[in-house]
Write a structure and sequence with these properties.
mainly alpha
Amino acid sequence: RCSSVNSTWLVVRGGPTWKRYISFRDALRADSHLAQRYAMLKADLVAKHGADREAYTRAKAEFIVAVTGEK
């Protein structure tokens, strides 16, 4: 039995949310150390929050805001 959870988000291309997502993606692509830190954070949060997707997402927010400079 598969216990993975997938999420799909739809945003307006060129809109503020899209720009924030692209900015974060580009930052991870440009800095392998940053990408590794983010991967480790996500693994830790999965262990901590399990299937609580909302708690997992909230816990990632501080890291993402620090990288993008936006809330």
